[in-house]
Design a protein that fits this description.
single chain; about 240 residues; alpha/beta; 5-stranded mixed beta sheet; two-stranded antiparallel sheet
Length: about 240
């Protein structure tokens, strides 16, 4: 007598970049269609956000786009450090509006990827791993992301700073050669301002009111937003 098998329940984290909404549910869904219905039923995320006509939807750890209701949800996902998990990270990003013109041909995209691999070696190989299975639009977005992340712009020389004994009128502070002219009196004023700021911060610490002036940031939302941008080429 054969035993029936069931899909194990796993944690699913959903992040919608347009609203920065984050939800966590438990699910044993095996396809995107099943999971989408459950997310709509158990959270306040609008069904329109989960429509592939309006959004691009990815499993963020595996970097797999969930294109249709029949798309199988990944399992045995390998994370950084070699850890394997069945938990899912669903990232929902707005679908870009179609602009005039078309995406470069696949041969052109492949040629650019090979150029980056030749220039950057293992870093590019790891970044573009499996790129022949990407859609042309997604591959083009990944190329843009790679350029922003790994190809640094040329450094621009900083202007020279010239200290003078007298205050120079504002209209004369920028020389024709691009140097900035600052008087010693101006520097003294700035130093005094920084000194006052330091004293003020020390008084705040001593009063125990630091919590009233600190800005609290949710690190998980920032991390999820970074993932969303990397998936859509906005990073």
């Amino acid at each position: 007598m054969s035993e029936s098998t069931t899909t194990p329940t796993r944690q699913v984290e959903i992040y919608v970049s347009s609203s920065r909404a984050r939800k966590v549910i438990e699910s044993n869904a095996t396809t995107w269609g099943e999971l989408r219905e459950q997310i709509t039923r158990e959270t306040n995320i609008p069904s329109s956000d989960l429509d592939t006509e309006n959004s691009k939807i990815f499993e963020g750890n595996q970097r797999v786009e969930l294109i249709s209701s029949d798309t199988q949800l990944p399992t045995n996902i390998r994370l950084e450090g070699g850890v394997t998990t069945n938990n899912l990270l669903i990232v929902v990003t707005p679908k870009a509006k179609v602009k005039s013109g078309v995406t470069a041909s696949r041969p052109a995209l492949y040629a650019e990827v090979r150029k980056h691999i030749a220039n950057h070696g293992e870093v590019a190989k790891k970044f573009f791993f499996g790129y022949t299975n990407y859609s042309s639009v997604y591959l083009a977005a990944q190329i843009v992301t790679f350029k922003k992340k790994y190809e640094k712009p040329a450094l621009v020389a900083k202007p020279k700073v010239i200290i003078e004994e007298v205050i120079i009128p504002k209209k004369e502070q920028i020389n024709l050669d691009g140097s900035v002219r600052i008087s010693r009196e101006t520097i003294s004023m700035v130093a005094a301002a920084f000194n006052l700021m330091a004293q003020a911060m020390e008084l705040i610490k001593q009063s125990g009111m630091t919590q009233l002036v600190n800005i609290q940031v949710d690190p998980s939302i920032d991390k999820l937003e970074a993932i969303a941008k990397s998936l859509t080429g906005r990073g």
